[in-house]
Design a protein that fits this description.
Structural class: alpha+beta
Low-confidence stretches: none
Oligomer: single chain
Order of helices and strands: HHEEH
Radius of gyration: 15 Å
Mean pLDDT: 91
Number of domains: 2
Strand content: 15-25%
Strand order of the largest sheet: 1-2
Largest sheet: 2 strands, antiparallel
Distance between the termini: 19 Å
């Protein structure tokens, strides 16, 4: 069930996050303008405050690429 209050709350939190980290939305825009294809690799790395590094990556399949396109389209239409 759709909860408009939750969406509003998430929007406020996202706005605060992007104000604190203005380079991150620019990164997301650059990614959204890049054509991902099967075989592309998405990697994420986290370094904790204690210095521990945790990383993972995925090599995209055709179905992954399609799902990411659908999510991007849903995000665009939600604006």
């Amino acid at each position: 069930m759709f909860n408009p209050g939750l969406v509003f709350e998430l929007q406020k939190k996202w706005q605060t996050f992007t104000e604190n980290h203005p380079k991150f939305p620019a990164f997301l825009r650059a990614v959204s303008n890049t054509e991902l294809a099967p075989g592309s690799v998405i990697e994420i790395s986290i370094t904790t405050a204690e210095g521990q590094n945790i990383a993972s990556n995925v090599k995209l399949t055709e179905s992954d690429v399609q799902m990411l396109k659908e999510v991007a389209e849903m995000m665009r239409s939600a604006r």
